[in-house]
Amino acid sequence: MELYKLSGRTSGGVCLKCRHNTAGRHCHYCKEGYYRDNTKPITHRKACKACDCHPVGASGRTCNQTTGQCPCKDGVTGITCNRCAKG
């Protein structure tokens, strides 16, 4: 009720069960382990794509929620950390 009052009595709802791999108070961003496909609205069922971090080349399984870039180990490159870096 407090959010409703603070919004000028126009909004204040809070989502309880976000769908399509979204998260947040209003299901307005992708949940951990997913990143946003900016070619689709956040309400689209395929707006959040699963991180596809390489199991050997990446130093973790969670990618950047905006870019999809996985954290690569030294000497590894690529958005999913699946290629050897030059040098």
From TrEMBL:
Signal peptide feature range: none
InterPro entries for the chain: Laminin/Netrin_ECM (IPR050440), LE_dom (IPR002049)
SUPFAM superfamilies in the record: EGF/Laminin (SSF57196)
Superkingdom as given in the UniProt entry: Eukaryota
Keyword Cytoplasm: no
Keyword field contains Repeat: yes
Pfam families the UniProt entry points to: EGF_laminin
Location(s), subcellular: Secreted
Keyword vocabulary terms for this entry: Disulfide bond, Glycoprotein, Laminin EGF-like domain, Repeat, Secreted, Signal
Annotated PANTHER family: NETRIN-A-RELATED, NETRIN/LAMININ-RELATED
Name of the protein in question: Netrin-1
Annotated organism of origin: Stegodyphus mimosarum (African social velvet spider)
